[in-house]
Amino acid sequence: AIVFDSFYDQYKGVILIIKVLNGVLTKKTEVFFIQSEKTYIIQEVGYLTPDMKPVESIRQGDIAYVSSNIRKCDEVQISETIVSRDIVHMNAQRRLVVDSDRLGEEHSGEVHTSVKRCGRDSFRGASQPKEARTEREINLEQIAASKVDVSYPVVFCNIYSVNDKQANELEAALNKLKLNDASFSFKPDVCETLGKGFKCGFNGLLHLNIIQERIKREYDVETIVTAPSVNYLVRKNYIHGIYEPYVRTSIMTPEEYQKFIMAECFQRRGIFIKKENMDSHVIFYFDMPLSEILINFLDEIKSCTKGYGSMSYENYVTYRESDLHKINIYVNNRSIDSLSFLAHKLNYHEKGKRIVLKLKEMIKPHQFLVIIQAGVGTRIFASERISPLRKNVTAKCYGGDITRRRKLLEKQSAGKKKMFSIGKVKLPPNMFTKLFDLKAQ
């Protein structure tokens, strides 16, 4: 049988949706997963009608579900091939094979009460096949289904839980979402300011929004999503070796708004390709940097055309050499990696200054001085300060020598400097949502 979909059940674990290609599959049958090289005991088989309806057995040609008490979501992949454990053995070349004569036979097997997980080691004690049977042996790779080609992610961002205690719940939610979404990928990541999180890849912004909304609705986990970014190619042997992804973008708009569309595209470093007239509308074709159309580009198109404009872009990505700079954001001399981004030399100063000003509005005053900076390499080109909260330590001094007041102020200043060196700035949880919801202008 071949696995083509799966989902997670709270009580039964991972439920596999399969198509039976040959033979009969019954409950309590021991099966072998070819790609993961693991063995499981079938606990339940049945049909989706659309509710799960258990049956005693399923046969060739059936579309059914299988439950094997699999609790780890990453143990099963789409396009996994399942065969009966009884017909699998190891040959003289230490390869897992099956007998061609037994592929169509039915095997009840020994009844087990627990799930077994084993790989090649479980076959080491098996008796070696005779030379006469070598011609009838079939390699498992020959009967295994080829892996499903999934679309490569083009949009990337980091996802963190608002509450650090829900980091494990977030990981479990992402694993369950990946079961029936093969194009979604993620890996662990740790940020000093936001804690444990995950670097995730998506097909586009809509895909990102769907995953974020499903995490909130289905698993009740509040998340922080960083600014979306794209993949860049870097050639280390060249000084200017950063290549930026471009996509062919088509924009349809009424004729009276075409000058606004042209201005917006050129402002975002678009390369004009051609223009087509269609009745009272105009279609523009541009090669646009993928990073420029991720944030608010469609909103700007809708705004300047009063809602009549539309935009679409192709999945095919080409890379062009660009003069890009990495912008680092510092809070009290500590780099915030999740806020770092790449920007073109034509607009990196404006983008960095805008983020610094926005952070100044969002971060509340602390007991110590907060310095927010944006820089390229070792050069700081934008800086803002948030004054600390101060107690009036001289309120109890009614007259007397001025040195008494000066001592109290100097003592307070020394305490503020110490807190500046050891204090930790608390960033608001909705920081990324507000930061990167800025208009392009």
TrEMBL record:
Residues 331-436 form the GTP-binding protein LepA C-terminal domain. Residues 242-325 form the Elongation factor EFG domain. Keywords: GTP-binding, Hydrolase, Membrane, Mitochondrion, Mitochondrion inner membrane, Nucleotide-binding, Protein biosynthesis. One of its GO terms (molecular function) is hydrolase activity. GO terms for biological process: positive regulation of translation; translation. Residues 151-225 form the Elongation Factor G domain. It comes from the Eukaryota. Pfam families: EFG_C (PF00679), EFG_III (PF14492), LepA_C (PF06421). This is GTP-binding protein. It comes from Plasmodium cynomolgi (strain B).
